[in-house]
Amino acid sequence: MAATRQYGKGNKTAQRLWPVLLACLLLAVPCRAEQEQKPTYQKKEATALISADVYDEMVKAQEAQEQGNVDAALAILDGLRARSGRKALKPYELAQMWNFYAYAWLAKENYGKAITSFENLLRQQDVPDALASNTRFTLAQLHFAEGDVKKAIALLEDWFKVAENPGPDAYVMLAQAYTQNEQFDAALKQLLKAFDVARAQNKDSKENWYALLQYLYAEKQQPARQIEALEVLVNRWPKRNYWLALVGAYAEQGDERRQLAAMDAAYQQDMLDQEGYLVAYAQLLAAGNAPYQAARVLDKALDKQQIKADARNLERIGDYYRRAKEDEKALPFLERAASAADDGETALRLAYVYMARYHYDKAARTLETALAKGGLNNPLQARLLHGQALFHAGSYDKAREVLQSLVRLASQQEQEKLRQQARQWLDYLDSEIKRQQDIRDYLQG
pTM higher than 0.85, yes or no? Predict the structure, then answer.
């Protein structure tokens, strides 16, 4: 489909939604001529327009093609074409011969020769209006399928001038052609006409019409109407691409409530199987005061290998569990995240969790890892926390060493507040050591 590659040159919304359109557009792009137009001949007396022997040969060609022997049908037609002199075919016979040729080549999927055959048909004299009209429409379909969109548009526009009571699908095809030619206003006009005609003819609208409709509204930057079309799609044809497109449309509108509702529906149907969507879903759940559900979404996705087990995702899961007051579930993920991270920030955040749960030894070891990895936004603050963790763990000598080092570094970097905090902790450390010594002396009495 060379023609489809011409799409997607508009705004970013339309580019993102193009796979949605393509999935449905291909349902309606007529790669072959409509079968009801295929020429057939009943075995009855020949008319004045076709001589008896030509009629018999055309019936033989028809029977051969119906039996799947297209080459035999082509050979019969070649024989008719080669006639000359008194046996030469009359204009109407030639038109019917080229019609048979066209459908034979279509059966062999040789669209180029089929197009040439239909064009030869139209060059004949005395072609009935109905046959000429059907042929032009079929040619438009073939040119569209072969990627010659401008030719398809020209043929369709001519066809509409003479067509009697055309059905909605013809308007849709012209809308598709205009779309591929990036004539979006003209495309939308024809597509809306298709909906009107369908209602007037009491026919149902089709899936690919709405897929094209939402794409055109996206191109024309009419998000509210685009969403209306997508909502019809997800309700009548609930496919993954439509749900994800609707999620994206709500997101671009900043409608987080409906975005989350759409994601909920897609998730329940197992349609969110890509990391970006799963992470976005979890983030929306967490923002909506549902951190436990957010953690479970990513936890399950990790088990299914739908998201990478990297530091960022592991920390997300751990953080969501922690925010849901599920620290015991959070810690394994935070520990794995701290180990996998390239810098020390993740380990620093893990240390805060350990401190909150009074796991001072683990906090001190984790802070050593964080400081060793580096890349911290505030390394002096991390040193202060390290000294505090060592103090609470009873490692007074190490705590003193860390806090004294912090005093020096804070002075050098003119971090007076941190220097004072470190001095206060050193004083507190000395007083605590003295207090414990006084207790021991008293007990020894």
Answer: no
